[in-house]
UniProtKB/TrEMBL annotation:
Keywords: ATP-binding, Kinase, Nucleotide-binding, Transferase. One of its GO terms (cellular component) is extracellular space. The lineage of its organism: Eukaryota, Sar, Alveolata, Dinophyceae, Suessiales. ATP binds at residues 144-148, 217, 262, 318-322, 346-351. Residues 20-115 form the Phosphagen kinase N-terminal domain. GO terms for biological process: phosphocreatine biosynthetic process. It comes from Polarella glacialis (Dinoflagellate). This is Arginine kinase. The keyword Hydrolase does not apply. The keyword Flavoprotein does not apply. PROSITE patterns: PHOSPHAGEN_KINASE_C (PS51510), PHOSPHAGEN_KINASE_N (PS51509). Pfam families: ATP-gua_Ptrans, ATP-gua_PtransN.
């Protein structure tokens, strides 16, 4: 059973082969009042109707994912308040088929979340030569640069629903595929401390190594945000989760975290061209390696990549620079300034980082869908250049 404060989810999987997709609610009326009154931004509240719920409540995808499973976190947020779930969507996909099985909810949710994107989503563009000239960025302000995306492998439920056995099978497929990488990409797979599913490292890496990887911004943490608990992302932790990385830790693949795969390229400094070219090579290599073992990726002709969270679908791409901007980030209009330029600024230790303010921000593109990868990275490059120019103006004014 999962619990957090007053919240409890008593649903369990009876066997390691069972997927997680309960029928949580009986009727729309079970949650209608709380949902209707939910304050703040919540796309689920704006889109879901009784008629829609009645149409889908008894349906399941071919892999067994219920409609309730997809909306559980949004309903929890409505019942338990803003602090419970910082997400603004209220929907996650239990598998890729949810998008087409429950279209009356999923299409408007995707369109709303991505601000009415240009659809169908354009084909991928990983052509580094089309990036803007990065010399417009003053490198003195940049600590490091990172580009990540996610990928889903066909035939498996997504992390909110995947069974323990399927997670282990997926880990086996992916690690087999990653072992075929060569040259700069060649590396090893490191299962989380305590994971018993990877035969070559039967108890995973040691806790110290794991903590060091997290501290150095390479590895994800155990899900403790309530929002992730609502969707039961913590099930069977830490088994069948881990990270593949090359020797330099510049090419990394996360396995079985919030997506089947997260593919990451990162390095110190501001050389986005080098980071993006490595990212492109890693994405191509991972896709080819998966296909060579008979596995397709979940790419929808309409929405692009289907990942667990509607907010990441499309390219799944987040390109970021970790920059030191103590003056600009302290301005009252900083958040809005970033939003106006389609940028998001996170604290220096990830999405859920706490209040400690060191003046460092991880600044990235906001959009994921309706534009190709090169376009999104260029939005980040231009935005970071403008942000540093603003920081310099504030420095000059303070003298
Ligand atoms: N440019 C960067 N340089 C170094 N580390 C970075 C950079 N951008 C992000 N990181 C680090 O990557 C780790 C993961 O970040 P975070 O969880 O916020 O985002 P994500 O991996 O893109 O996924 P999600 O958006 O789903 O949370 C954190 O440790 C974060 O500080």
């Amino acid at each position: 059973m999962a619990s957090h404060g007053d919240w409890k989810d008593e649903t369990i999987c009876q066997s390691s082969g069972e997927i997680h997709a309960p029928r949580y609610f009986k009727e729309f009326e079970d949650f209608a009042e709380a949902l209707g009154k939910a304050p703040g931004e919540l796309i689920l509240r704006d889109v879901l109707t009784k008629e829609m719920y009645d149409r889908y409540k008894d349906e399941k995808t071919a892999l067994g994912v219920t409609f309730d499973k997809c909306i559980k976190g949004g309903i929890d947020k409505a019942r338990l308040g803003e602090k419970w779930n910082v997400g603004k969507v209220g929907v996650l996909f239990g598998d890729a088929e949810c998008v087409t099985k429950y279209p009356d909810l999923m299409h408007p949710v995707i369109v709303a979340r991505h601000g009415n994107p240009h659809l169908p989503h354009p084909p991928p563009n990983l052509e580094g030569s089309q990036l803007m000239d990065q010399s417009i960025i003053d490198e003195k302000y940049v600590i490091s640069t990172r580009v990540r995306t996610g990928r889903s492998i066909s035939g498996f439920p997504l992390p909110p629903s995947i069974s323990a056995d399927q997670r282990k099978e997926l880990e086996g497929i992916v690690t087999g595929a990653l072992q075929t990488l060569t040259g700069e990409m060649s590396g090893d797979y490191y299962p989380l401390a305590g994971s018993t599913t990877y035969a070559a490292k039967p108890i995973g890496i040691d806790k110290e190594t794991e903590e060091r990887l997290i501290k150095d911004h390479f590895l994800f943490q155990e899900p403790d945000e309530p929002m992730l608990l609502s969707w039961r992302m913590e099930r069977d932790w830490p088994h069948a989760r881990g990270i593949y990385h090359n020797n330099d830790k510049t090419a990394l693949v996360w396995v079985n975290e919030e997506d089947h795969l997260r593919i990451i390229s990162m390095q110190q400094g501001h050389d986005i061209r080098a980071v993006f070219d490595r990212f492109a090579a890693l994405v191509r290599a991972v896709e080819t390696a998966c296909k060579s073992v008979g596995r397709e990726l979940e790419i929808s002709p309409m929405y692009g990549n289907i990942l667990s969270c509607p907010s990441n679908c499309g390219t799944g791409l987040r390109a970021s620079m970790m920059i030191k901007i103590p003056l600009a980030s302290a301005q009252p209009n900083f958040k809005q300034w970033c939003a106006d330029r389609k940028l998001q600024a996170r604290g220096s230790s990830g999405f859920a980082s706490g209040a400690k303010d060191d003046g460092i921000r991880d600044v990235s593109n906001v959009d994921r869908m309706g534009k190709d990868e090169v376009t999104l990275v260029n939005e980040m490059i231009k935005g970071v250049a403008d942000l540093i120019a603003w920081e310099k103006q504030l420095e000059a004014a303070a003298k």
